[in-house]
Amino acid sequence: MLEQEVKERSPLGRDTQYVNQYDPSQLYPISRKLNWAERGIERDSLPFFGMDIWNAFEISWLDLKGKPVVRLAEFYIPAASDNIIESKSFKLYLNSYNLSRFEDGEIVRRQMEVDLSEAAGGQVKVVLRHPDEAPALGRFEGECIDELDVDIEHYHPQPELLVATETEVDEALYSHLLKSNCPVTGQPDWASVQIRYKGGQIDRAGLLKYLISYREHGDFHEQCVENIFMDIWQRCQPKELVVYARYVRRGGLDINPYRSSLDQPLDNLRLSRQ
Hints:
two-stranded antiparallel sheet; alpha+beta; GTP Cyclohydrolase I, domain 2; elongated; 6 helices; 2 domains; 32% strand
């Protein structure tokens, strides 16, 4: 199925009937191979590790007496899974728990893991938390590059802006200026992004201009982060690289992908805009 056809069939941008009884059929997977094929990435030899970390703030079901239970949720979807899960379908799926009765939260958590793992084509981890156990706000390590005085001419991705010198560094840079658009509805997706790398020093002005060039680009969160990782990896050729984006919440969900040359998990770091 072609990428445009996949997007057109998704629940995004369409009138939808919200269901309030448990219904895993609401989930709509989209193959990661669509983006991998455009980048020349082979499924069996991915050039990165990573995770898509989802946080959900509108999780509720009924206990056996009909009393509502409210929780926060974290979902960890491997970057090597077969599919991403379209965000509106994810929300519809979570809403379907609202009037369904369950004996306890562990049953709900396990059922979510089963459903999401099947939709993603990979093992998904689910964590449920009491609202009083929400993690504290944090911030990216490193140096913010947003105050650099740069002229912006492009609002679609321009990988040629990425340039590295021969000076070896080990540094972390971040920006709050990343914005892209939903490829189906055109709604804005706002994010902060951290670039951690070892290797030839990346020109900071060029990096900032490159990140800003996504401003009118239409793509899913996961694909944007993968493309940023691949552009830096191919054009600057660092020895190590981590790209971690924290997107602003929409509809009770935020999506936070990271891609890394290192097989090391990252914390679910909640920023001030989340």
